[in-house]
């Protein structure tokens, strides 16, 4: 059993290795964002969304993903940008964060990039608690990609809710 | 050390099997105790269970369990063979139950991946003491017992060589087995092989011949391997396969012996020694094979009809079936087929539809399990508490065959246990007090389950002193739990205050209840599965606590309705009627609340599109439809665009993320419709309080 365990850890490590430093990039408005590939489950086209009442506007509702029901969040609205109509380039990135699946609606999905750790810098300190969702800024050639902190993207709403009250 | 060599499936099996056996054992002890004596059947059963636990624990190298089981086995061996007249049943049950508890704790440790390190020495000593006292009291000389047993056993254990074998076997084999180094307990493993080989042959000899009792047998097997000489009608391939199944098998030499001489040579040589070992075997008071084997046979046939499957797998299966139903609808209602006349296709589609719905029903029914194991557990609690609290209480169980969803069972076990404890501790008075009150000195606790619509009602009723209204009020005042004037509170409301957090009327904290965390935890647990709890009590007569639990979390009969582009599902059970109202029946009060008059009664109207802010073209009452629903005695009219139809729906909970965000009023979950779209299930209880 010990051996088996070791194998498993090794496998896990290997798997993590192939996913390390790799980011899926997507566009919301003019900015390019990236999220860690290891939390991405799949990318699907936009689906019919069932609205659920009494939720913040950025939670668009729920979708049926092959029998599994998952909530979808409009990243545009989450970032307090103007909402746009969905088109055939609109994608839903299904992510799994700590066992909680959720779909992120983004304008379009670009590519998978490797951004080594040394190319990532911490976001600048902005007064007023900005950059809540940004974990770091990745430099790729001449462009910058804003790397999202999924955990916060999902869980920051308690603060929002308090603010609303 | 031990987990280094155990493989997971085997461990799982061990845990599962042992816990089941333990439960069974508890049952038979408790029922024996009730009859105030151990029947031969019960003794046999307990003996057999202990034997199995001993064996499997030894194989899994959980020595503390196996030694304890062995001691208990000895005890029941004595009871079985000697049938002593004077047995102190209640203290015997105590000892055995202590042992059972010990094993339970150890198994729990194993389940959690910890080392089972409990020390059973005291228990074993107690048992041994008890046994020797028992022996003394019944004045049976040990030697007498041995001699009495000898004549019975030889034919059972070894087919004696003097006797002409009943069957002529075709083949002769010699098998030499080497176990993996460090697997330990080689002799027990060898014994397991011997036990299993009995399915293939009745004639066999082994080197070393005395695997269990001789101290050095493990050492011999470790060095020279374990040799079995046997005759059988099975072929070389079959026997090879049999031996290959051996756990921790390192290598196997299976040789077919050509002549009777080769076989006989061994036999002649061993003739004398076998005789010796035979006597030794018996004098040690070991298991009688005949009893064990017949038990095994009758038992296995019953067990094989049941398999245990993890709930996760069933959930997965249900998801897949759900997907299939949707996929089927997508095929049969495909827009490409619109307007085509396809007789054969329709016929085939109808067939497919029938099968899928049958499949769905079957999957659902698999998840339903009777409440009886959960109820039976309560016997033990009642027994222990009666002893501890010195009360006499009779537990009556009614309707234990009622079935509920597996998920629900898991959730109600603990709350139920708590309620029963409460009833015994707080409810039932001591015998003396009962007599003074003119009641039967034995208290009664009734545990009842019954179906009631889509709910299962579980009722815990005691005939104790009932709840003390004044005490509750006083306590509530002290803890600031009063939410309205005392005078205004109905009896029911006062009683329900015991469900509030931090409420406990018991002055002293006892081992069983009274920490003040009880009832509100029970209440919360029941609420999480969509159940409700109500308390009723008559002073001096007793308390009744009723749990209403949904039959299943998984499936309901629902009416689908449409509002704008969204669809909603209302559980059919709460729908009274649906109608299109006349203009003149609509009443609007000065505050703008709309009401509908139906047959002289007035009910508030809930505009779904307004409460849920859904865009729809239908806002005039005469264009849409009114659905009259009732829950907890309150009736409202839900206004929707149209009815879509009735169907059984699979209830899915809203995604965790949304649940965490906030509890949405009036939504019980969601479901998938035939076309793959999602419908939200309305929680009528939530809506009537909107």
UniProtKB/TrEMBL annotation, chain A:
Coiled coil: none annotated. Residues 20-159 form the CheW-like domain. One of its GO terms (cellular component) is cytosol. It comes from the Bacteria. Pfam families: CheW. GO terms for biological process: chemotaxis; signal transduction. This is Purine-binding chemotaxis protein CheW. The lineage of its organism: Bacteria, Bacillati, Bacillota, Clostridia, Lachnospirales.
Automatic annotation (TrEMBL), chain B:
Coiled coil: none annotated. It is found in: Cytoplasm. GO terms for molecular function: ATP binding; phosphorelay sensor kinase activity. Residues 351-553 form the Histidine kinase domain. It holds the Pfam family Hpt. It is an enzyme of class 2 (transferase). Keywords: ATP-binding, Chemotaxis, Cytoplasm, Kinase, Nucleotide-binding, Phosphoprotein, Transferase, Two-component regulatory system. It catalyses: ATP + protein L-histidine = ADP + protein N-phospho-L-histidine. Residues 3-110 form the HPt domain. The modification Phosphohistidine is found at residue 51. Residues 555-690 form the CheW-like domain. Its EC number is 2.7.13.3. GO terms for biological process: chemotaxis. Its main location: cytoplasm. InterPro entries: Bact_Chemotaxis_CheA, CheA-like_dim, CheA-like_homodim_sf, CheA-like_P2_sf, CheA_P2-bd, CheW-like_dom_sf, CheW-lke_dom, CheY-binding_CheA. One of its GO terms (cellular component) is cytoplasm. Involved in the transmission of sensory signals from the chemoreceptors to the flagellar motors. CheA is autophosphorylated; it can transfer its phosphate group to either CheB or CheY. This is Chemotaxis protein CheA. It comes from Kineothrix alysoides. The lineage of its organism: Bacteria, Bacillati, Bacillota, Clostridia, Lachnospirales.
